[in-house]
Amino acid sequence: MNILILTYGTRGDVQPYIALGQGLKRAGHCITLATSSRFKEVIEQAGLHYAFMNDGMLALLDAPGNQGVLEDTNNLFQVVKRTLGLLKKIGPIQRALVDESWEAALQSKPDIIVFHPKAFTAPDISEKLGVPVVLALVVPGLVPTAEYPNMMLPRLRLGGWYNKLSYSVVNRLIGLSVAKHVRAWRKAHHLPKAKRFSLLHTADGAPIPVIHGFSSLVVPRPDDWPQTASICGYWHTEDDGHYQPSPELSAFLNAGPPPVYVGFGSMTGRDPERLADIVIEALQRAGVRGILATGWGGLKVKALPKNIIAVDQVPHSWLFSRVSGVVHHGGAGTTAAALQAGKASVVIPFFGDQPFWGHRVHTLKAGAAPIPLKKLTVERLAAGIKEITTNQKIIDHAAAIGAKLREERGVENAVAVIEKLADKHNQASQRASR
């Protein structure tokens, strides 16, 4: 089959889909992955076909005046308030992404489309082409459940009614941002007016299958999810097979006990120098060696003591097996990598789904209590680092979870679901043509 994967966002929104694409390719399919142009080389190095999407949204958020715009909040309404100033610039970028998604589909001639929520016209494109579509998520953020609220809203203890309502609120807010682009595209391509905007339903109201790229050991499948929603396990790339560390990193790792890794992914924040100062002082107070990842700008280092080293970008799958603990922002990908490596974490969430993952790590007893960025101090971070490096119960829990996760076959499970859905669609089409 020709399979088109549409995704957009930071590296955490792309890397799992590369892993999924590689798994589909190993199963004999031809894969095209469309996303921001900054990831073109990475995708092609992974052996997948690349289709163009502009880099405008990421460049906008990278701009100095916009760095940290989403900092210090896990409240969706605050996020909306702080980003209102960007909306005039975001609209044209979203419209361009819509057209680029369609162009990617025309080029790849897909038999099935797999999409990230930010590629929000995928269901409409699939309708126009007459092919099935699958929503692929690495967070449990869209399928409603009464068991817990949407991760973008506060964790209020109001019961199942509030939890379910929170998903409707989030879906409605997503619609307010993008529905106009969907309507315009459908009109331009002579498709009937949709009943409503939903990432979970086609224009005629039929449910869209949803696959989730995380483990049910970390987030159990809610009992009230529909049959169309499945949890497959984590989607990891095998990116460390040919990795060669620098001589400096090798020498540092060999010079003493395993260090603590500290990195915040693509989170930049308003004051990366202050954040680096807090981290360095906390590592010193905790009495541990440290590795600081500075590659995405989350930490800006002036000078380092001898027991701390700075690195640019090192594959988590290679590095985390060589450290004693992980301090990170709670992004879905970094959380998954730490858990799979069996390493205890201190999560410092910035916004969005990160508080959710910090809560899950702590609930699983695989890490210290999360420390929201706005409450981060040297004292709190030092205490968290000491806890994950000396509390044997936490260390053992993390190791046990990692051993189980390494036995899972998340990519293979997702491939099987996608192939089954494509076969089901083909059989239905054959029956309809008789």
Descriptive notes:
The chain has two domains: 2-234 and 408-433, Rossmann fold (3-Layer(aba) Sandwich); 247-405, Glycogen Phosphorylase B (Rossmann fold, 3-Layer(aba) Sandwich), CATH 3.40.50.2000. The chain has a seven-stranded parallel sheet with strand order 3-2-1-4-5-6-7, sandwiched between helices. Strands 10-9-8-11-12 form a five-stranded parallel sheet, with helices on both faces. The chain is of the alpha/beta class and 434 residues long. Helix 11 (332-341) crosses helix 14. The model is unreliable at 66-75 (pLDDT under 50). Helices cover 44% and strands 12% of the residues. The protein has helices spanning 15-26, 40-45, 56-62, 76-83, 87-108, 122-129, 160-188, 247-254, 272-286, 316-319, 332-341, 354-363, 378-390, 392-405, 410-433; strands spanning 2-6, 30-36, 49-53, 112-115, 133-137, 210-212, 229-231, 260-262, 290-293, 308-311, 325-328, 345-347. The protein contains 15 helices and twelve strands.
What radius of gyration results from the CA coordinates?
22 Å
The end-to-end distance, rounded to whole angstroms, is: 23 Å
Which structural class should the secondary elements be placed in? alpha/beta
Strand content: 5-15%
Shape: globular
Number of domains: 2
The helical percent reads: 40-55%
Low-confidence stretches: 66-75
User: Please, what is the average pLDDT?
Assistant: 89
Tally of helical runs: 15
Instruction: Write the element-wise H/E pattern from the N-terminal end onward.
Output: EHEHEHHHEHEHEEHEHEEHEHEHHHH
Largest sheet: 7 strands, parallel
Protein name: Sterol 3beta-glucosyltransferase
Pfam families: EryCIII-like_C, Glyco_transf_28
GO molecular function, one term: hexosyltransferase activity
Keywords: Transferase
